[in-house]
Backbone:
């Protein structure tokens, strides 16, 4: 329901901003200007058309990303379109009826099927039935790493052994050795919540970040490992230095972005939670400024049924604490680790 409502909210018109409210202190947008999961200028028309039952804009968008080898954008657009389609399948059904062998439609069908199976009480059984759809998506374009990211997520849900997971990982790397989505899928598999440990998670994330190019989103993997650790309650022995080093690396990555990028907002949303957790209030306030009005479901939906409200609560706490030398009473809640596919 949280995901559906966020996408429906994004589709109310195509404007990126609500009517401005009263000015907010510290250069932050006021609460009424803050939006959840706002699509970028390429995705928004496709979502609006899909809401009207029209598949052509989405088909054109995904075809463009495939032909131009824009794999990161292709992955994100596929995930967002599939999440929307959870509540509106008619437009995709029409697309598949018109072009059953279209590689982009097949990719979206596989992503949607994994999402649907992931939320089922019979998750593993349902996911096993999805395997042929992922294979069909992988056959669409041998260069495309996105079906292999889906395959890695699928493998996590069907309890794939480490050796088999490594084979999938190798296939993903052959398509794109620096694909962020595939790295995130591998990080999740190695997390303590699934088939690894906090130490394995940090080791993988830090090594990948060390090997990544400057400005690569893979530089954010350590802060994702830190978030997974904090989400678990942070009770196991992980050096605080590793969490702070992950945050420092993500701060440097954030500084390379510039303001206003919708996709990169997720990294800053994740980073700001880790900074608040470490009571690094001044740095957290600066990231809140850089986030501006662009709130993302991840990580806040992992922490609350009201992700936007949770974001605003912590933003207020950081604003109060910044510059005071001490934080507000209490620490951010490390809420449910729900094992959700997203």
Residues:
């Amino acid at each position: 329901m949280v995901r559906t409502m966020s996408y429906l909210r994004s589709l109310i018109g195509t404007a990126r901003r609500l009517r401005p409210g009263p000015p907010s202190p510290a250069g932050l947008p006021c609460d009424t200007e803050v939006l959840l999961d706002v699509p970028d200028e390429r995705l928004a028309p496709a979502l609006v058309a899909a809401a009207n039952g029209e598949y052509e804009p989405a088909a054109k968008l995904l075809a463009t990303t495939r032909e131009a080898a824009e794999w990161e954008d292709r992955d994100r657009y596929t995930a967002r379109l599939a999440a929307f389609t959870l509540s509106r399948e008619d437009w995709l059904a029409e697309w598949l009826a018109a072009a059953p062998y279209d590689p982009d439609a097949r990719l979206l069908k596989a992503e949607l099927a994994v999402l649907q199976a992931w939320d089922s009480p019979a998750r593993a059984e349902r996911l096993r039935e999805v395997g042929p759809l992922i294979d069909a998506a992988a056959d669409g374009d041998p260069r495309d790493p996105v079906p292999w990211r889906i395959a890695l997520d699928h493998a996590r849900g069907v309890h794939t052994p480490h050796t088999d997971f490594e084979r999938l990982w190798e296939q993903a790397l052959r398509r794109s050795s620096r694909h962020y989505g595939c790295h995130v899928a591998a990080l999740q598999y190695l997390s303590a919540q699934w088939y690894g440990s906090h130490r394995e998670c940090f080791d993988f994330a830090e090594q990948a970040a060390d090997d990544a190019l400057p400005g690569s989103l893979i530089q954010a993997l350590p802060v994702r490992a830190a978030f997974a650790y904090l989400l678990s309650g942070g009770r196991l022995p992980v050096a605080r230095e590793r969490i702070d080093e992950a945050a420092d690396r993500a701060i440097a990555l954030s500084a390379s972005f510039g303001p206003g990028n919708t996709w990169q907002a997720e990294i800053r949303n994740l980073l700001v939670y880790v900074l608040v957790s470490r009571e690094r209030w001044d740095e957290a306030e600066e990231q809140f400024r850089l986030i501006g009005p662009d709130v993302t479901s991840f990580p806040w939906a992992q922490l609350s049924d009201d992700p936007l409200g949770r974001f605003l609560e912590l933003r207020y706490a950081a604003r109060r604490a910044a510059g005071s030398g001490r934080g507000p009473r209490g620490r951010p809640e490390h809420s449910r680790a729900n094992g959700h596919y997203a």
The chain has a mean pLDDT of 88.
